[in-house]
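Quick one, probably user error.
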């Protein structure tokens, strides 16, 4: 099967910063921050939009760290500037409550495996 796909506009060449905030007593408390070491275009082409990818990213974090269900979190994804002095641009901000582990245990983050293998340049 051959799939031809071309974005409506050129994809920005940029890295992303992912921040996970827990809502504690009505305020945001930064619990995790990750800056991608390389460009990740999947944020811009994921089916359902970057909010879907951010939610899957958060679910993987919740599973790994056994975060209790019901806690409120905010996931923020910013596109980092390519030029020094420019400001990061907000790609998405997702508000969610942690679901039970059983509801998210089978979900997988990221692009389909063949695309991921190509992106990672592994056979």
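Nope, works fine. Designed sequence:
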């Amino acid at each position: 099967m051959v799939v031809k796909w071309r974005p409506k506009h050129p994809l920005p060449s940029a890295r992303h910063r992912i921040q996970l905030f827990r809502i504690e007593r009505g305020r945001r408390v930064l619990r995790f921050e990750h800056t991608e070491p390389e460009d990740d275009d999947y944020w811009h082409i994921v089916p359902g939009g970057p909010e879907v990818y951010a939610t899957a990213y958060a679910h993987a974090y919740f599973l790994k760290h056994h975060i209790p269900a019901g806690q409120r979190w905010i996931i923020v994804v910013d596109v980092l500037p390519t030029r020094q002095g420019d400001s990061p641009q907000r790609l998405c901000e997702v508000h969610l409550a942690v679901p039970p582990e059983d509801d998210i245990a089978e979900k997988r983050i990221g692009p389909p495996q063949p695309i991921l293998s190509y992106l990672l340049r592994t056979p």
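Confidence is low (pLDDT under 50) at residues 1-6, 114-118.
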